[in-house]
Amino acid sequence: MPRPLIAGLVQGLLSALITLFLKRMLEALSKRWPGRAGLWVPPLAAASVSVSLLGSIHWLAGTPEILRTISLPLSVTTLYAIAYTLALRRASAGPG
Fold it and tell me: CB neighbours (10 Å) of residue 76?
């Protein structure tokens, strides 16, 4: 099987698994970190977990150009984590 095809399959599987657990992780961390830390710790943790998993597994799979392969999904993950964390914060603040 060609290496770019393997990289694409690995990335697709990883993205699905990361997305599956990302929402729950953000919710749990948002509850644990009050104040300003609750705004930056959850997205930072999500980005850190994503880059660690993506980088490690692509390295093990022998993916060529790992940084180019993970840059888009990592960016999407981080932006989603920031947006969702802000939404959680607003929802917990209630109306007003």
Answer: 13
